[in-house]
Design goal:
- The chain has 1 helix and 8 strands; from the N terminus they run H-E-E-E-E-E-E-E-E.
- It has an 8-stranded antiparallel barrel.
- It is elongated and about 75 Å long.
- Helices cover 15% and strands 41% of the residues.
- By secondary structure, the chain is an alpha+beta fold.
- The chain has a domain of 133 residues.
Length: 211
């Protein structure tokens, strides 16, 4: 009986040792097969005062498409630098003209919008343009083309003088093209004398600077 007990104890020890070895092998295999968790890379530190990478400037606008015999072409010495869409009204007043009464042009009242839809210029009396940055233009009509549709405003070429510092500084010409609307009736009645009429319009405005 003592020999049998000793044999069983030895076999139990060998079995326990084999089980422990198998358990260790399993644990080692799990450690090897499971990759360690990685931490996200930290962003590069920002150094105060270090120069920041400049954003590329937007490309200059293309000049409008004009006919070969257009009167509103700009000189070859200038390039387009800004193109905006204007929306507003043309203001007319009923006045005596010859033997009748006509709607006579007084001034525009409109805003000019950039590509994001933000109003950046106010366009008003004396063909003035006032940018939100404080720079301004005063324009003079030097020529025009009739619009393709007689119901729309003429296309204009303006020479301009600039004032203040900003986007409009140095602009020497402005074109008003692609007009829609803005024309009054051909005649008004005597009872409408001195009455104002506002007619909706839209147009593209192209600004030029010397090269």
């Amino acid at each position: 009986m003592a020999i049998e007990s000793t044999t069983l104890t030895a076999e139990s020890r060998r079995s326990a040792a084999a089980w422990a070895a198998a358990l260790c092998a399993t644990l080692l295999a799990a450690c090897v097969s499971t990759p360690p968790a990685t931490q996200p890379a930290a962003p590069a530190p920002t150094i105060p005062g270090a120069p920041q990478q400049a954003q590329p400037a937007p490309p200059p606008p293309a000049p409008p498409s004009l006919g070969f015999f257009s009167h509103i072409k700009t000189p070859d010495s200038v390039d387009p630098v800004l193109r905006l869409q204007g929306r507003g009204v043309q203001v007319f007043r009923c006045e005596a003209r010859g033997t009748g009464y006509s709607w006579v042009y007084r001034l525009p009242e409109s805003d000019l919008f950039d590509g994001s839809g933000k109003a950046v210029i106010r366009h008003g009396a004396n063909f003035s343009f006032e940018h939100t940055d404080g720079s301004r233009l005063l324009g003079t009509v030097i020529d025009y083309d009739e619009a393709p549709d007689a119901k729309n405003l003429r296309w204009l070429l303006l020479s301009t003088r600039s004032f203040g510092d900003g986007i409009l500084t140095g602009v020497t010409y402005v074109q008003r093209v692609n007009t829609i609307g803005g024309m009054p009736p051909s005649r008004c009645d005597p009872g409408q004398q001195n009455r104002l009429l506002r007619v909706d319009f839209s147009a593209d405005f192209v600004f030029y600077k010397p090269r």
